[in-house]
Structures are given as structure tokens and as C-alpha cells.
Amino acid sequence: MSSTEIERLVEAAHAAFDRRPTEVETGLDVDSGSLLQLRKGCRLLDGAETLREDGYYTIVIEASFVAIERTIEFRLLERGRTQPSDLPGTHPGVYREAASAGIVSEETANDLADLWRDHRAKTYYRDGLATADRADAMLALAHELHAFVVGRSRHGHECRCDEF
Predict the structure, then answer these.
(1) What does each of the 164 residues of the chain score in pLDDT, given as a tens digit?
(2) Which end of the chain is more exposed for a tag (fewer CB within 10 A), N or C?
(3) Which residues form the DUF8154 domain (predicted)?
């Protein structure tokens, strides 16, 4: 591998993102920004389940947090609280907006933000170790929050979790 090859691959990656999308991931070919976030949540949960079975605990923890955030963003968009181009730009911002919109209580939002700050970042970036029980706990939380939000949505029928 050379720096020239890396530069070529960076350009190839840019070009791939600049082209019109083809072979879109299952369930993500939708016109609605809110449904896109919902379906990303569904796909993240499904992917996390698969990776959990194979013992990839770090990515299960990461995917669980991201699934929670995509699910909250779905609800924010569905309720007209934001636009796709104005989604919260930070992880804590997603949780604050979830409380502000009444998606979860202020206490739950603070707990989610604490969990993200204290454990997700530590597991992903620092010396925290991913374990099976931590991955299981995060995945269970992500599934429950997803079901909670979907169950209160008028577009809950758009959830594809049972299809994957």
C-alpha cells in the first residue's frame, strides 16, 4: 500500500458518493426523511443482532446507540420538530431534542446522554472493554426504545424490523 494508492482510493470513495445511488440497502429506498431515519434504525438493529451472534460486541454497542439516535430522529422529523438538514449534530443534542419533544422524559434523556458519554465513548475510543453483557444490555435498550417510539407513531406500520 502506498500513499498514491490511498489517494486513489480516497478519490474513488468521493466518486462513489457523488454518483446517483444504485443497489440501495434493503428498506432504505424511501422518499421521506423521517422514514429513512426509521428504516436506518431498523437496519441498525438487525445488523447489531447479526454481529452480536458473531461476538462483535464493540460494534453492537455502537450500532445500538446509533439505532437509538436514528429512531429519535425519525420521531423528531415525523412530528415536524426538525428538517432532515437540521437534525441535531451531536449525540447529546439528539437526547436533548428527544426530551424537548416529549419523546422521552428529561430524566431518560439525561440517562441516555450519560450512558453515551460515560460508556459509549469509553468503549469506542478509550480503554473501555466491550463485553457480551454490555452488548446485550445496549441492544435490549435500543430494541425497547425503537418499539416504544414506533408504537406511538402514526407511521409505525413503516417499521421493517420484522422483515429482516
Answers:
(1) 789 999 999 999 999 999 999 999 999 999 999 999 999 999 999 999 999 999 999 999 999 999 999 999 999 999 999 999 989 888 899 999 999 999 999 999 999 999 999 888 788 777 889 999 999 999 999 999 999 999 999 999 999 998 86
(2) N
(3) 1-161
What would the DSSP string read from start to end of 4-66?
HHHHHHHHHHHHHHHSPP-SPPTT---S-HHHHHHHHHHHHHHHHHHHHHTT-HHHHHHHHHH
* CB hemisphere CA count around 93 (13 angstroms): 7
pTM, two decimals, is 0.92
Q: CB of 74 within 8 A of CB of 38?
A: yes
Which residues, at least 6 apart from 19, have a Cβ–Cβ distance to it below 8 Å? none
